[in-house]
Amino acid sequence: MENKITEEELSTIKEQTNDQNKLLTDIGILSAQKHSLLHDLAVLNGKIEKNKEALNEKYGSININMKDGTYSEIAEEVEEVENE
């Protein structure tokens, strides 16, 4: 006579294993998507920096109002060196 678990127990194990495999696959897909999105973000950050440099060359150091496009100059602070 063979030692055997019940059909219900075997069914439960198979279902749980299938669910686990699906979740692991989904995690892998999400990881790949995250990697792609992080790459896209890095590319966009590079574009933002180039645009900031171009605006800085044209207007100098400014703060831009994102609602209406107006801007104000940023006053450069000069550090005072104390003589000891």
In words, what does this structure look like?
Helices cover 63% and strands 7% of the residues. The protein has one domain. It contains 1 helix and 2 strands; from the N terminus they run αββ. It has one helix at residues 7-59, and strands at 62-64, 71-73. It has 84 residues and is mostly helical.
Question: Brief overview, please?
Answer:
The chain has one domain. Helix content is 63%, strand content 7%.
Mean pLDDT: 93
Question: Rounded to an integer, what's the Rg over CA atoms?
Answer: 30 Å
Largest sheet features = 2 strands, antiparallel
Based on CA inertia axes, which overall geometry fits? Answer: rod-shaped
DSSP strand count: 2
Please write the string of helix (H) and strand (E) elements.
HEE
Q: Count up the domains.
A: 1
Q: Give the CA-CA distance, first to last residue.
A: 95 Å
Helix count, DSSP H or I runs of 4 or more residues: 1
Q: Helix fraction?
A: 55-70%
Strand order of the largest sheet: 1-2
Structural class comes to mainly alpha
Tell me the fraction of residues in β-strands, as a range: 5-15%
Report low-confidence residues grouped into runs of 5 or more.
Answer: none
Key terms:
single chain; 84 residues; mainly alpha
SSE blueprint and pairings:
Layout: H1 7-59, E1 62-64, E2 71-73
Antiparallel strand pairs: 1-2
